[in-house]
Amino acid sequence: GRSMADKLANEIVAASKGEGASFKKKEDTHRMAEANKAFAHFRI
Fold first, then answer.
1. Max Cα separation, the chain?
2. How many domains does the chain contain in total?
3. Position 20 pLDDT exceeds 70
4. Angle at CA 35, nearest 5°, toward 27 and 16?
C-alpha cells in the first residue's frame, strides 16, 4: 500500500494544479458560503 506521505504529496501536487478532492471540497464550500451570503438578506 501507499504511505500517508505519498498520498499527502500527491494531494499537494494535485491541489497546486487546482485539482484534487480537497481543493474541490474547498471550492464547493466557498461557493456555498458565497451563495448563503447572497441570500442572507432574504431570511426572515
1. 52
2. 1
3. no
4. 10
